[in-house]
Each structure stands twice: as C-alpha cells, then as structure tokens.
Amino acid sequence: MNLKTQYLGIELSSPFVIGASPLGDDIDMARRLEDSGASALVMHSLFEEQLTSESSAMAAFTEGVEESNAEGLSYFPESAEYSLGPEDYLNHVALLKSRLSIPVIASLNGRTPGGWVGHAKLMEEAGADAIELNIYEVPTDMDESGSEIEARVLEVVAGVREKLTIPLAVKLAPFYSSLPHMAKSIHLAGANGLVLFNRFYQPDLDIEDLNVEPKIFLSTSSEILLRLRWMAVLYGKTPLSLSLSGGVHRVHDAIKGIMAGADTLQLVSLLLRHGPQAMASLIKDFTEWMKEHDYNDISEMRGCLSHRNSPDPAAFERANYLRVLQLWKV
Ligand SMILES: Cc1cc2nc3c(=O)[nH]c(=O)nc-3n(C[C@H](O)[C@H](O)[C@H](O)COP(=O)(O)O)c2cc1C
Question: How many CB atoms sit inside 10 A of residue 320's CB?
Fold first, then answer.
C-alpha cells in the first residue's frame, strides 16, 4: 500500500501531518507522534506581535503615539505568556530537527508587511524544512476594502518568499470574495502551498460580566465540510500543494479530504484529545479502507471527488444549492 505524498516538493511517507499547535513543543510528544506514523510536524506559530512588540513599545514610549495605539499594545499577551520567544523558537527548530527524522515546518503568523518577515530566514537557517505562514486577521476598518486587504496579504507572502530558499505554505481564512483568484495570486507571489483553513477563532460573550470570553474549542468532524468544498474547487486548478487543516477525526474524514484533493491532512484536535495512539489508529484504518476498496496507491484516490471533471463548477455549485433547498418538505 503506497501512502507516499508530495507536499511543498517534499516527499512524505503519508499525508498525515501534525498541525500547528503545542504538540511540537514537547520533544517526547513529537517523537511519540513520529513513531505513530506522523509524516511531518508543523510547529506552533511565532507571531508578528512577538517580533515587533519591543520596537512598538519603545515607539509608543519615545514618540508619544496616539493613546489608542498604546492601548492596543496592551491587548497583546506579555512576552512571558508566549510558550517560546523568538530566540527560543529558533533553538526549538534546531532541537526538533536533531531529534526527529520527519520534516519540521516552522510557522510564522502575522498580517502586515514589515521587518518581522525577516525571521523566516532565521527559521530556515535554524533547519526548518519549510515555512507555514499563517495570515490571521479580522477586518474591522470600514475604510479598508477587500482588495486592499488582499494586496496586503500578497505583500506579506512576497516579503516572506523573498527571504527564503525553502518552500513556503500559506494558511488562509476562508473569507475571500474569490478564493480561487486569491490562490492564484498567492502562487504568483511565490508560495508553494496553501493550508485550508485557519480556524476562525470565535469568542463568546459573557452577558453577566459584560465581557468577551476567550474560548478555544477543539474541532469536530463537522468542520471538515467547509474545507472539502474549497479543496474540491481548487484541486487541479493550481500548482500549489494543498493541505487540509480542520475537522479530520475519523477515517472517513481523511478519505474525503484526499478525494477532494488534499496532498496532506493536518491533525490537531484529534491528537490533543486522544494522543499519539489516535494517529496510529487513523493510519491503520485508512490503510485498511484502501485495501477493502482496492486502492493500492493514494494517488488513485486524490481529487476523484473534486471539481476537476466538472465542465461548469459554478453552475454545479448553484444547482446543488437549489436542490438542497428543495429537499426540505413540510
Ligand atoms: C491549542 C491550539 C493551538 C493552536 N496553535 C496554532 C498556531 O500556533 N498556529 C496556527 O497556525 N494554528 C494553530 N492552531 C490551529 C490548528 O493548527 C488547526 O488549524 C485547527 O486546530 C484545526 O485543525 P483540527 O480540527 O485538527 O484541530 C491551534 C489549535 C489549537 C487547538
């Protein structure tokens, strides 16, 4: 049974990758995951704010920037609250590389062009096999248009690309007017892969304390549907490697992800809940499913449920939408 997969030009033993999370912070955990069959590890992110906070704080102090900006700085965690500072992060890349034989992908997380993107080069020098750039932002400015935001994203991608010789994947939110056009532009800006999607962090409201409650829920399989849709739309249309992140819990989720067109499947919630054994079980179940269904090579399945063979994908999407609404009878 051949599960070998190409991702970002790197050959992986299978599509099952440890997604960006604290799972890579602990060397023993990372090694146990590798022993359970993980084919690569994405480290948790180093944030733009970590790389710029010292200089911004200094600017606020010396140049008397507007109060709203100074206040904005106080929203962010203190440096001690991050699990690894910029220097420690680079040491951890090197440590993971020395203790694992699977590829290690370092993650940078930011949203504005600037000097912080230079840290990508240091990650490469520390031994990272690739960089995953997570662009996370929630637009709140009524004066900034979608195209301006997209231009900014592309500037960040190009800025990181310029620093690197290793492959670059971009982890995106699903909220673009045209994700296919954005994917094409990201490719032209020099990226090698896309990770679909960033999980949209949705805080709850505490109506007694009149406060915003920061919450992080682990995912369920229901989250995969959004990923499957866009994976199926993009597959075969872009030279970018495609990685699915979000909602892979059961063997059928994994099969669907590959059939929609994913090169790799990133797992986080499943592993945080059930540990490395869940990785081993998923790979075993996946292999058995392939055997039962007469697949010898994962490439025989990849993209078979994508839009590639649909002559008019937009009409197909619209038709399914109409059909599903007509199914409900009272
Ligand atoms: C505790 C936790 C920490 C995470 N940290 C990061 C991070 O540092 N960078 C990042 O890009 N994604 C991060 N994520 C998001 C995951 O990489 C992943 O995209 C998301 O959890 C969806 O995958 P899942 O359904 O397998 O959990 C984190 C998720 C969790 C639950």
Answer: 10
